[in-house]
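Students often ask why inverse folding is considered easier than folding. One informal answer: many sequences map to the same fold, so there is more than one right answer. In these notes we will look at a single instance of the problem. The structure comes first.
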C-alpha cells in the first residue's frame, strides 16, 4: 500500500503518514521475528494464499468456503475475502492500485484504518489466550501496538474526513 502511495497519492500529509507507518511496522516485524527466534518458533508464515481459489489451490480447500461468518449471509467471493484480518481483499487492492490522486488518498486511508483495526483485533484475540499476558515482552509489545495503532486510526479518520 505504501509503495503505491508514493506514486499515486496526492497529499503530502498522507504520504508522510504512510512512510511513518511503514517504518513503525518494519520495527514491529523485526521485534516479532526476534521474539519467535528466541522461543524456537518458525519465523516464516505459512503460505497465506494456499487454499484460496485462484492461487493454485482448488476452491474446495479454501478455509472460507462454506463459512458465512455473518448470520446466514452467503460467503464472500474470494476477491472480496482478505487473506487474513486487516489485510485488504484482492478487490480492494485492485481498486487502490487503479486509483490516483485524492481518490487514492481516500482509499489508502480507509484501507490502512482497516489494516490497523485488524491488528487491534489480533491483539485482543491474542490476549484472550491463557497466560499470554504473563510474557512481559509480549504484554509490553501488545500495549504499544494498541496505543500506537489506536492513535493512528484517529489521525487517519481525521485526515479522511478532511479530504
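Output (designed amino acids):
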Amino acid at each position: 500500500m505504501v509503495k503505491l502511495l508514493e506514486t499515486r497519492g496526492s497529499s503530502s500529509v498522507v504520504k508522510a503518514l504512510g512512510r511513518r507507518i511503514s517504518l513503525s511496522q518494519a520495527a514491529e516485524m523485526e521485534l516479532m521475528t526476534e521474539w519467535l527466534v528466541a522461543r524456537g518458533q518458525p519465523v516464516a508464515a505459512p503460505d497465506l494464499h494456499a487454499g484460496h481459489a485462484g492461487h493454485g489451490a482448488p476452491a474446495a480447500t479454501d478455509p472460507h468456503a462454506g463459512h458465512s461468518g455473518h448470520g446466514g449471509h452467503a460467503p464472500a467471493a474470494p476477491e472480496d475475502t482478505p487473506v487474513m484480518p486487516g489485510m485488504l481483499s484482492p478487490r480492494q487492492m485492485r481498486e487502490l492500485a487503479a486509483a490516483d490522486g485524492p481518490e487514492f488518498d481516500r482509499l489508502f486511508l480507509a484501507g490502512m484504518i482497516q489494516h490497523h483495526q485488524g491488528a487491534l483485533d489480533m491483539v485482543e484475540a491474542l490476549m484472550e489466550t491463557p497466560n499470554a499476558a504473563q510474557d512481559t515482552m509480549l504484554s509490553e509489545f501488545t500495549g504499544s501496538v494498541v496505543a500506537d495503532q489506536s492513535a493512528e486510526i484517529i489521525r487517519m479518520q481525521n485526515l479522511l474526513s478532511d479530504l
